[in-house]
Write a structure and sequence with these properties.
3 copies of one chain form a homotrimer.
Chain A lengths: L2 E2 H8 L2 E3 L5 E2 L1 E2 L9 E5 L5 H4 L6 E5 L11 E5 L2 H19 L2 E2 L4 E2 L4 E2 L4 E2 L4 E2 L4 E2 L4 E2 L4 E2 L4 E2 L4 E2 L4 E2 L4 E2 L4 E2 L4 E4 L4 E3 L5 E3 L5 E4 L4 E2 L4 E3 L5 E4 L4 E2 L4 E2 L4 E2 L4 E2 L4 E2 L4 E2 L4 E2 L4 E2 L4 E2 L4 E2 L4 E2 L9 E3 L4 E2 H12 L1 H24 L1
Parallel strand pairs in A: 4-5, 5-6, 6-7, 8-11, 9-12, 10-13, 11-14, 12-15, 13-16, 14-17, 15-18, 16-19, 17-20, 18-21, 19-24, 20-25, 21-26, 24-27, 25-28, 26-29, 27-30, 28-31, 29-32, 30-33, 31-34, 32-35, 33-36, 34-37, 35-38, 37-39
Antiparallel strand pairs in A: 1-3, 2-7, 22-23, 39-40
Chain lengths: 350, 350, 350
């Protein structure tokens, strides 16, 4: 792929100075770029490189005044750094879109069906009756179990495992190593102290536009579905237990965990390492601070909580501050005890 | 596989109404099932579908009184929902048992030995001198290191990694992405502030009937064995450090962690995200609440603890409640100080 | 590989008794070892086995006085146990070094380059333009994305995923299932409550001598690099967010997490399950206790903190102790209130 300075200017809404026909095919740092590369100059400290760089096109800030002639074509924008980042990101998106076909060896069962523009990486496994939509990219070493359905435009990163019968919506991204649909943690205690496995025959439904981080785990439902509603964003290493529902546009930060059958509303924000017990519900718009332990339902929308056990954010902060002052409080209490003792003694002496 | 209404009645201990020879080969919802499918009716709201369904066999509740003739064969049981779940679970078990042979490509070293009825999925790796028992199912992309021994009837889900020399008992299930036998975290501090790796030459022993969730990590011992005793159940994303022993029938919920050389007794219950420091022991039957941080040995069996640092459950709850009331306590203290100050002032004035 | 008693003595700095030419090729326990095996005797309880063992060479303690003749060649050292461990570890190292070549099938792109003595396990994936140094061992099912650079002497365990453009230094070990370079968790909130992905176009740089445990996740930077400085040791299941810098020789225990853009100094020790918020800095030599929640920068080097929110270790311990005594404090407060009330009543009665 090659782009002219003029094409780049259109993509990032900039103005060309110099030869608009100059072509670039890759990216480089201004201090090391070669001919045919695109660079940018954001930090004034590096301005000298602008006059010596071999880059064919350089993105610069609108307000930069040239002190010498420049051989590269320039593209001026308000913020060179962010324009360059935008370009790089579009470029990577384009490269992902262009990934198509099957790398060898991969395993695709005869009964699986696929849309247009699908990529199946080497050592990826596609089970029986799997249905894969258009433009889905399945990276190497991923595992897609029997009867799984994956909607259009999903990206399944390396080593993701999706157990049988799960449903993935459109535009879902799942990062490396995450596991969708492992058995819920259900064991019935027996009289002899042992545990008998409760069959986990439900599935996981991940709706449209969800993003799931790396090495996260989302268990299948005992019966029915564990559901991640559309637009939810889940970070790395989070745990979602069986029969949980995570609401629309809810955000869960890394290493947080939600226990079985809990229902989390829409637009909830859950901080890192927070834990939520099972069988409760969390109202829409709630904010759960990092490391909190939520042990009761939150019924009022937009409530903020913190602490373990978690309670109302403002009171909790006040209690936490007082906790730190406990040595001082204890000292004040002791002094009072002395004074009162003295007062009592005097009274008796009266 | 096809089953008659009569056979299904035997499996779930029910009574047939209608043609006991009707055959089914798959499952469906009562509102959409086709001929040759098995459905169930539990929720009275859906009763109308019973009279129109194309399903060949329907499981219904004992006490349901038919208002119209039904073309499907019926199987009556006390709880249609749970009978259907049982059937579905048995069916999946059967399907797992029927998985045998090797998918291509997989890697099995010449020196590995296998029992009867073993399944090796595509892209699974079986190292040198590995011994695999009867009816073991190793799913795609799993890695079994050199000299590993796996007992009969184990299920090793996709992408599980078992390092060299580990021992897995009979009837063990390990979910996707879990790592057994990675190096313990042992580094000796050096004079210059750097760390020198302490060789981790032990292994992990997982006894019979253990279940391990997804993306969990169990480190090999420095010397000797990290041991998971029979019947223990470990949830997703848990961490078990080197030389730990987890007792018989002990249950550990998601994201909990146990530090090195700690010995956990039998029938202990450890809540989610709890942490236990190294080199301590936890008495049989202890209950460790979610998010607790256990920093000392628990010597009395059946002790319940909570908090971080964790202590006796009942006192801890009382302290936690008072913590929340700290603003109130502080106010009471301030009022007392005022009153005593006043009393003192009056006394001086006397 | 076969070693003589004399060669073993050289390796562990011991003295031979008996035939220095006796050869061993593997290891065994003294009670079960066969001819051609090396055993050790450390525990005096097992001394009887020394006189009956079939092992060809036995490592024993310097101070052991033989009560009977021994047919095995003996190698005397100050500590037989640790000498045996050293040998076993050297042996495993040697075996790892001897792993070379490519197992079949593996996927190596044409544009990848490799040094000497490299091992590529079955089902490993090596992307475009990847550069792999000398003596690098890449185990089965690992994924190395496009443009990744891996320095000499690295060990990449099974199922590790390294996303495109990341840089791994020399002598780095990464344990099974860890993910390096997944997208940072960056989403810009939109007016309608949804979130728009912020492109994550940076990478991860892991410097020389770093060890990373199993199933850990290290996200790529939004722009620039997430950096793990030389000599750092990261345990299992830890989370390092985008644009974080982990300092030289810093140690992070299992399940701890560091949020985005935080800069952790050198020689810091972070306990298990600790969490550190984003956009702060932690001074060199700080000690962060297990399960702590660090919400503010630590500016003074060598500070120890604990608690959630974390503060100064000594005060925090005092506050924690007082927290446990809150029921007692509350009782004292109530008693004081009674007494003061009484004093006030008496005063009014005056």
């Amino acid at each position: 792929m090659q782009f002219s300075a003029a094409q780049i200017a259109v993509l990032i809404n900039g103005k060309v100075e110099g030869d608009p026909q100059k072509l670039v095919g890759s990216f480089g740092k201004i201090e090391e770029a070669a001919a045919g590369q695109l660079a940018f100059l954001a930090n004034p400290k590096y301005e000298d490189y602008l006059y010596t760089t071999a880059a064919s096109v350089v993105i610069i800030n609108d307000n930069l005044e040239l002190r010498q002639p420049v051989s590269a074509a320039l593209v001026r924008v308000p913020d060179a750094y962010s324009a360059f980042a935008t370009l790089l990101s579009k470029y990577q998106e384009l490269k992902t879109q262009q990934l198509t076909g099957r790398q060898d060896p991969s395993y695709v069962s005869d009964s699986a069906t696929m849309g247009e523009g699908v990529f199946i990486g080497a050592f990826a496994y596609i089970g029986e009756q799997v249905k894969i939509g258009n433009q889905v990219k399945i990276f190497p070493n991923a595992f897609i179990g029997n009867n799984v359905v994956i909607g259009d435009n999903c990206i399944i990163h390396p080593g993701v495992r999706i157990y049988h019968d799960c449903r993935i919506g459109r535009g879902v991204t799942i990062h490396a190593g995450s596991v969708i649909g492992s058995d819920g943690f259900g064991f019935a205690p027996q009289a002899d102290g042992s545990f008998k496995k409760v069959p986990q025959i439900g599935n996981v439904v991940v709706e449209d536009g969800v993003e799931i981080g790396a090495n996260a785990t989302i268990d299948r439902a005992t019966i029915g579905s564990t559901i991640i509603r559309s637009g939810a964003k889940l970070d790395n290493l989070i745990q979602v237990a069986h029969n949980v529902e995570v609401g629309h546009n809810t955000v869960i930060a890394a290493q947080a965990g939600v226990s079985g059958s809990t229902k989390i509303g829409s637009n909830v924000m859950i901080g890192g390492q927070a834990g939520i017990v099972g069988h409760i519900s969390i109202a829409d718009g709630s904010k759960i601070n990092a490391q909190s332990g939520v042990s009761k339902s939150i019924k009022t929308p937009n409530t903020a909580v913190t602490g373990s056990p978690a309670f109302d954010y403002t009171s909790a902060l006040r209690s936490q501050a007082l906790s730190r002052n406990l040595p001082d409080m204890e000292k004040r209490l002791k002094e009072l005890e002395q004074l009162v003792k003295q007062l009592l003694a005097e009274r008796i002496n009266l």
